[in-house]
Amino acid sequence: MKRVAVLGGGPAGSIAAAKLAAAGLETFVLDEKLAWEKPCGGGITYKAYDKYTFLRDNDTPKQIVTDTMITAPGAGTASMRLRQPLLIYSRYDLNGMLLRRAEQAGAKVEKTRVLELQRREGRWNLRTRHGDLDADYCIVATGARNPLRDVGTQLRPADAMLALGYYVPAEQAHVDIQFLPQLEGYIWVFPRRGHLSVGICGKGEPAQKLRARLEQYMREKELDYTKAQFYSHLLPSLETPAWKTNRIAGTGWMAVGDAGGLVDPITGEGLYYAMRSADLAASTLIADACPVAEAGVSYRQILQHDFGEDLAFGAMIAQRVFLGSFLFRAVPTRMVEFMRRSPRFLDLMQDLFAGTQPYLTLRDRLLSNLNGTLGEVVMSFFFQRLIPGGQRA
Ligand SMILES: Cc1cc2nc3c(=O)[nH]c(=O)nc-3n(C[C@H](O)[C@H](O)[C@H](O)COP(=O)(O)OP(=O)(O)OC[C@H]3O[C@@H](n4cnc5c(N)ncnc54)[C@H](O)[C@@H]3O)c2cc1C
Questions:
Q1: pLDDT band at 291 (very low <50, low <70, confident <90, very high)
Q2: Burial bucket for residue 347 (CB in 10 Å: 0-12, 13-18, 19+)
Q3: 234 C-alpha vs ligand 1 centroid, how far in Å?
Q4: How far are the Cα atoms of 5, 251, 258, 274, 303 from residue 243, in angstroms, in the given order?
Q5: In 10 A of CB 58, how many CB atoms?
Q6: Which of 15, 183, 195, 208 has its CA 20 to 30 A from that of 119?
């Protein structure tokens, strides 16, 4: 193994490149835009900055948000003071910081578009907008709109959701999350430095309808979208069968981040999984014991064990979370009601927000807490007592 080409320099590509270069491999990052304002909320959970502490400990501008308001139809709003704050970056700043980190580790970063890749005699030939390049291995990190058809996940329409929104020149200190009737998705308002990222993600609904839902919400909240910059992008959201057949590696290549479909199918969180998958892919490649031909197999197994199984399980329960019902009311409605009335349930939501509650053990935790949670809900009805921070509809 001599030379690795990292195709795409978003969070996934930069993290992989930094690790590979630091391990002494000749590493090239090829990105057509370099640092850019990729449509994104830019929210980084505790799970991400606890593992990758450089996301927290740096001079790059970011918002540190502790207050969250969650609203569902018919339930009003529950407020939650996060034990572990959410970090919110502009993607221009985040991408720039991660690319500089890769460069400092020794990676060569080039602004160019990869047009085609061909495998010849055990090596890669890459055709780019600015000439050809040879490589022994490719890390595919070209995002959800990966134009390279032979590598990376094959997203069917059912395996993606649309995400769109506006950058609004306004300020607020807290995050808003709004569930909507009959939508497998949600609206968010994320405060950033100098503006708000207000957006909606949803599965199975056309962009026009999602946009109309978002604009109605913004009118109600007096968030002016008429002069705000609009954005839209694709968000991988693999269905259960796709997790089984997902094309994340092949001979001489591995896909990381969105190019591998590695996004939480419920929350849409992709930044952690982009960085984690890149870290795992680079580690697999660096490992001496792993021959190049088998690296992809190893990567698939490690990924599955690390978070793949959990996200696949998330895909199984996603519809029930947004569209299901519990005790004759919609699940999001019950969620907000319970947050306001049960400290145990609020505790669970804290962990879900921090990213420390896996989906695989969610059911067991809910069941073991059920009596206590319902007890707290009933008591709060009797005594009209709400937990601190809880608000009435
Ligand atoms: C509206 C929206 C809101 C989101 N909000 C959040 C959030 O708050 N928190 C969160 O965790 N996740 C969020 N996500 C998901 C997150 O944005 C992605 O998961 C994350 O960007 C994936 O990183 P990546 O490096 O895999 O891909 P990307 O960030 O998409 O990077 C891919 C890179 O590849 C480059 N590229 C593509 N094709 C080529 C080519 N042919 N040649 C050269 N370069 C190429 C692009 O220029 C780009 O820089 C959101 C997504 C959307 C759409």
A1: low
A2: middle
A3: 9
A4: 26, 20, 13, 16, 11
A5: 14
A6: 15
